[in-house]
Amino acid sequence: MENKIVQPVITAESLTKKFGHFTATDAITFQVKKGEIFGFLGANGAGKTTAIRMLCGLLMPTSGNASVAGFDVFTQTEEIKKNIGYMSQKFSLYEDLTVKENIRFYGGIYGLSNSGLKEKTEILLSKLKLKNEARHLVKSLPLGWKQKLAFSVALIHEPAIVFLDEPTGGVDPITRRQFWEMIYEAAYCGTTVFVTTHYMDEAEYCDRVSIMVSGKIAVMGTPDALKKGFSVKTMNEVFLKLAR
Amino acid sequence: MIEVREISKRYVDILALNKISFTVDKGELFGIIGPDGAGKTTLFRILATLLLPDDGSARVNDWDVIKQYKKIRKNIGYMPGRFSLYQDLSVQENLEFFASIFHTSIKNNYENIQTIYEQIAPFKNRKAGALSGGMKQKLALCCALVHNPEVLFLDEPTTGVDAVSRQEFWESLIELKNKGMTILVSTPYMDEASLCDRVALMQTGRIMEINAPEAIIQKFSKKLWAIKADNTYHLLKDLQSFQHIDTCFPFGENIHVTLLHGEADMNDLRKYLQEKQHQELTITTILPVIEDCFMDLMTEDILH
User: Fold this and answer.
1) Which of A2, A41, A44 is the best substitution to test chain B (most B C-beta atoms within 10 A)?
2) What is the pLDDT of residues B269-289, one digit of tens each?
3) Half-sphere exposure (Cβ direction) of B159: Cα atoms closer than 13 Å
4) Do A162 and A192 meet the contact criterion of CB atoms below 8 Å apart?
5) What is the arithmetic mean of pLDDT over A225-238?
6) Contact B163 A239 (CB under 8 A)
7) DSSP B54
């Protein structure tokens, strides 16, 4: 991927959010390139969720600047929402709808045409090998399948960026790896992936990672560079050195 | 201390536990390792006397989980998977509440909770709902310990908790174990297995293996390699289409690989990867970790 055009799809400059006297996100500055897998790490309470909510157009920043997929986080939040995908372990699919109904629901929300929706549904079901389960309720699927389906649904409108908030929590180790293969594939096809995780081995799968400590980005770089910088062998050690 | 015999539990069309048996000795730190859907929570709820098994029997501290549930409830500490404290009460109030339920006081068993309590003491007037994930779990552990139980049941105490808080939490568990506490703890994080005396590896209601973590690793019979190149995704794709590949799984910066005929296929693989022009290619023989063993057992399971 040497020839990838270096074109930022997310830029944040001194992006800040205060709740009363508490600064949850404290002047963070970074850029994410097209097709990059960017790991957004940090301890519980470091300010990750607040930052993600601002970048997704769900929370108005207190100060600073940021643009996502070319849209401003202060003034163009609706455009941002149309141009990003989002999934997390806590919120993804509707358990009481079938696999097909979920696809139709999200496709509809993101404005796919009827024919586009039909085509996407077919592609998606066959790719995930879920054809026989199309009419099953989502709650009857194993967690790993749900997460893979949720990821595909988050990409149904071919967004420029997909935000993944702890997508693999509790998933078995083989499915977790299949899930990451889907992430690699999406990035290879040009989708920018912005991902949080508590599995430090997954931090190694990212092109670059940032680690937040007390509202600030403490370090940012490729996993290799960070490990070299701290003279350690794993991202887990980098994380422990920083956050402890 | 804990004795589980052929326990089964079915929820309508899902067999959550399928004839589970194991024992935990006094003073042992025993881990139930497995992903969501393995049956961990069902097992904990049966042992904490909150759910009846369909079949089989279990004893905790030599009391039967069905006939002597009241005795068990008084003598165990149970930390459920979902944060179960009162979010609207402060740290201090939660502790006092749980102490009073067990007719004791924080003071009575302070020694038990001291090292953990000191870590959350700076926030003692904060509402439990306003604590960070790691702090919540420490408070929940304190509440489970406040009546000086003989056995601790901890259902996924470190799920969703960051790496630093996880490490601190495990340090507390090892300290409790060293004081003689019997601990049954479940986790989806495979790397935590090595901190237990023994572990049961669970998947879809079954125990695939019970042993000391070192013994599980020793049993791994295949030759394992860690392979690295500049582009992991391309490397993975190429490895997957190699003729003699057995398994290949991303592992941090490497891909862990086993081959159908072990060492005999290695020369072919080297040639194949060179033809594919991978840069900065390194191939190293390595020892497995628990996660390798777990995936190996899962793959065997699927084949049967």
Assistant:
1) A44
2) 999 999 999 999 999 999 999
3) 25
4) yes
5) 94
6) yes
7) S
ipTM value for the complex = 0.85
How does the average pLDDT of chain A come out, rounded?
A: 92
Instruction: Write out the two tokens for A156.
Output: 């149904």
φ/ψ bin of A57: left (φ > 0), alpha (ψ from -120 to 50), beta (otherwise)? left
Tens digit of pLDDT for each residue in A15-32? 999 999 999 999 999 999
**Which of chain B's residues have a Cβ under 8 Å away from the Cβ of A144?**
35
Q: How does pLDDT run across A70-125, given as a tens digit for each residue?
A: 999 999 999 999 999 999 877 679 999 999 999 999 999 999 999 999 999 999 99
Residues of chain B with CATH 3.40.50.300: 2-217
Q: Does A166 touch chain B (CB under 8 A)?
A: yes
Looking up tokens 């190694």, which residue turns up? A204
Nearest-CA distance from B226 to chain A in Å? 14
| Sign of the torsion formed by the C-alpha atoms of B95, B101, B107 and B108 | negative
- Measure the CA–CA gap between B183 and B22, rounded to whole angstroms: 14
CATH architecture label of B2-217: 3-Layer(aba) Sandwich (3.40)
- Does the CB of A45 have a partner CB in chain B at under 8 Å? yes
Token readout for B95 is: 């502790």
Question: Could you tell me the domains of chain A?
Answer: 8-93+161-243 (3.40.50.300)
- Give B221-287's CATH code, choosing from 1.10.287.70, 3.90.1150.10, 3.30.70.920, 1.25.40.10: 3.30.70.920
Strand pairing class (A37-42; A192-196): parallel
Q: What is the per-residue DSSP string for A138-187? A: GGGS-HHHHHHHHHHHHTTT--SEEEEESTTTT--HHHHHHHHHHHHHHH
